[in-house]
Amino acid sequence: AEMFGQLTSGLEAAWTKLKGEDVMTKENIAEPMKDIRRALLEADVSLPVVRRFVQSVSDQAVGMGVIRGVKPDQQLVKIVHDELVKVMGGEVSEIQFAKSGPTVILLAGLQGVGKTTVCAKLAYYLKKQGKSCMLIAGDVYRPAAIDQLVILGEKIGVPVYTAGTEVKPADIAKQGLKEAKMNNVDVVIMDTAGRLQVDKGMMDELKDVKRFLNPTETLLVVDAMTGQEAASLVTAFSVEIGITGAILTKLDGDSRGGAALSVKEVSGKPIKLVGRGERMEDLEPFYPNRMAGRILG
Ligand code: GDP
After folding, report:
1. Residue to substitute in 107, 116, 117 for testing ligand 1 pocket (most ligand atoms within 8 angstroms of CB)
2. What ipTM does the predicted assembly reach?
């Protein structure tokens, strides 16, 4: 299935109804606005975001009047495009680097979202930009995750600090960071343990790790397939441990778009990067503008 396929065709239905009109009025946009609302809800966009989106588009549409050479259906496409960009945060939000010493990036997230994979992908991405990286394996509840990280590290030529599963994550963080400083690496990325659901144990552990690492970036890895649930998670982690942004994975699957469109508005935190596949190359910055283009087909 084409990513956002359903959202794309749902939105298309809206402008089709304006064909042949000379100007957008409160009356003739009523049906198109219903189409837009329905398309967003079906894409699992969070309800408050849908409400605000539809209101804003509708206000702009009615206020637009006649524009020579631009038909109402094209006007509506443009308004929706710009509103999509806005809802996704407008500008691309880059990874920040520390002014001195290593930049520390802490990754958090529930089990199975792709956190361990992202850890290696991110190192690969930064390495290509000329940064030396080191990974810290902190998923102490899943020995397989540590092995997986070591294998990925070898594959991309990035060292991985491991201390097994018997050491507390906060101590692993402390020792790993020390090692990174000794080796003068530019960026340290720490993988942490996820759980099936948000629980106090995970949050406390992350708070401990965060205290020791004092990270420049604390990024929550969320699965695009979970739709608006991804946005609620970003809010929860933001409130509990403080995060600087999100990484949205599995955008190559048949994600309906709800996560991409809800995270920023619901949580106030930007999506910084997106994963769109299992290969190391499959991580890229989140460009609201390109994403809007893709949604509009
Ligand atoms: P973790 O439990 O969060 O550490 O998750 P893993 O990194 O082990 O990933 C879980 C599964 O999702 C693995 O099979 C990964 O290959 C897969 N995965 C991770 N990111 C992506 C992605 O962007 N797209 C796809 N299709 N699969 C992914």
Report:
1. 117
2. 0.98
